[in-house]
Amino acid sequence: MKQLLLVFAFLASIFQIHSQENLPTDYLTKEFHQGRREAFRALMPANSVAVVFSYPERVFSRDIDYTYHANPDMYYLSGYKEPDAVLLIFKEAQGPEKYNEVLFVREKNATREMWTGRRLGIEGAKSKLGFSNVYNGKDFNAFAIDFSKFDKVIYDRIPTDVAENNSPDNLYSLFKSFKSKAGITQADETSTGLFDKITSSLREIKTPEELVLMRKTVKLSCIAHNEVMKAVGPDMSENEADGIHAYIHKHYGAEGEGYAPIVGAGANGCILHYWENNATKIDNQLLLMDVGSEYHGYSADVTRTIPANGKFSEEQKAIYQIVYDAQEAVFKICKEGTPLVALNETAKDVIAKGLIKLGIITDPKDVKLYYPHGCSHFLGLDVHDKGIFNGPQTLIKENMILTVEPGIYIPPNSKCDKKWWNIGVRIEDDILMLKDSYENLSIDSPRKWQDIEALAKQKSTFNEMKFPKI
Ligand SMILES: [Mn+2]
Predict the structure, then answer these.
(1) Distance 430 CA to ligand 1 centre (A)
(2) N or C: which end of the chain has fewer CB within 10 A?
(3) Domain boundaries, position 321
(4) pLDDT at residue 2 above 80?
C-alpha cells in the first residue's frame, strides 16, 4: 500500500493533478472580492493594517475532520475557501512595489492534494482570485512586516482552542507568528471591535452580485419546503423530512445547509434550536421545519409549519393564524427608515393580543412565555449575519436582508388549557428591504394555512420512492 502511494505521489508530481472540470459557473467573481477589499480599505483608519485568518479545521472523529467551512469574512474579502491562510489588507500602499494587500495560502503539494483535495496555491490565487502578492503560508513568519509602525492593527478574535501544530504553514503557526510579530499578548478589544464594525457595515448591505446568490439559495429552499409539504404524512420520520430538504438543496447545487436543520414534530417543534430530528413518526402533529440551504456561501433561513396529516386542527389553526397575522403586520413596516426594534415590537404586540383572546395568557407581559425570541436578524453569508445594531435608533437600510420570524410555542405542561399543548408554530421569511417597501424572497413557499392544505393534497415524487426493507 505504502509503495503504491509513493508511485501515485510520483506520478501526480510528474503529471500535475488535473484541474477540476464541470464546476459551477456562478461563483462570486474575483472583481466582487476585489471590490469588497476596496470598500473595506476605504473604512480603515489612516496608517492601519487588517489581518484576516481562515477558520480552523475541526475534528469530527479521531483523524477525520468536519467538512471544512470557510470563514465568511475571509471568503467575502478574498474568495479563498481553504484553511491555513492569512490575508493582509493595508490602508496605504506599502514599499517600493506599492502593494496594498498580501495573501498567504496553502502550498501546492501533489501528495497532500491526493489525500485531501485540490489546492489553489499561489498561481491559482493570482489567476482565479486576482491577487498580485501571494505567498505560501510557511513564508508568513519570515515576511518582512513591522506591525509597530502602524497606528492600528485590525484583526478578528483569535480562537484559543486551535491545536498546537508546529508545521510552519499550519493555522496555529500563523497565529503564533502574527502574535509575536505584532507583540500581542492579549486580544485588543478595540482591534476586534473595529474589525467587527467594518465587516458588519459592509456585509449588512447586499451588493447586486450577492443578491443573485441570495435569491437562489432562498428559492431552492422554498422548493424543498414545498416538496416536504406534498410528501409528508403521519408515518414519516423527522429525519426523513430533513433528508428531503437536503436532497433538494443538493439537487440545485447548494453545498449543504446554512445551519443545523430544525425539523420537529409536536413538542419537538417547541424547542427553538431542536436539532436531533430523530422522532421516528411525526404522527398527527404539526411539523415545524426551519431549514435553509447554503448556496456558494449564502444561507437561506426559511421556516414553515405544517400539519402532517394535511389538515390543521381548530387549535393548530388558531395559533397558526396569530403567527401569520403577526408576520403580516411586520411586513407592512418593512422598508428603509423603519427602526429595527419596531419589527419585534409589532410581532410581540399581535401575538400578545392573540394569546389573550384565546385565553392562553391574561397579562401581555406573559407573551414571552410563548414567544421567547426576537422577530428578525440579518441574513447572508452567516445565517445570523453581521450587521450593525446600535439600539432603538438603528434604522433599516435599503438592500439589507432580514428575516421576519414570529412564533408561538406551547410545550406540554404549560400553564394553559392542555388542548394547546404541543403546538409549536414559526413562520419565517427572508425579506429584502427596499426604499419604500420590501420584497419577500421566500414568496415561493405558501404561508397561508389554506394554501398549505391545498399543496399538501398534491403528490410528491418522494412518495413513489421504494427502498428495500432492512
Ligand atoms: Mn432565523
Answers:
(1) 9
(2) C
(3) 208-464
(4) no
Q: Among 176, 163, 114, 105, which Cα is nearest to 138's?
A: 105
pTM of the full structure? 0.94
Q: What is the pLDDT of residues 293-316, one digit of tens each?
A: 999 999 999 999 999 999 999 999
Q: Is residue 65 part of a domain?
A: yes
What confidence tens digit (pLDDT) does each residue in 66-92 have?
Answer: 999 999 999 999 999 999 999 999 999
Domain-embedded: residue 469: no
Q: What is the pLDDT of residues 360-402, one digit of tens each?
A: 999 999 999 999 999 999 999 999 999 999 999 999 999 999 9
Same domain, 134 and 157: yes
CA of 375 to the centre of ligand 1 (A): 8
Query: Do 199 and 242 fall into the same domain?
Result: no
The residues annotated as belonging to the active site are 63, 273, 290, 301, 373, 377, 384, 405, 409, 426, 428
CATH of the domain at 282: 3.90.230.10
**DSSP secondary structure code for residue 150 in this structure:** S
Q: In this structure, what C-alpha cell is assigned to residue 26? A: 456562478
Ligand 1 centre and the CA of 166: distance in Å?
Answer: 40
Q: Which of 168, 203, 238 is the last residue of a domain?
A: 203
> In total, how many domains does the chain have?
2
328 alpha carbon to ligand 1 midpoint, in Å? Answer: 17
373, 356, 374, 357: which is closest to 365 by C-alpha?
Answer: 356
Give a yes or no: residue 470 inside a domain.
Answer: no
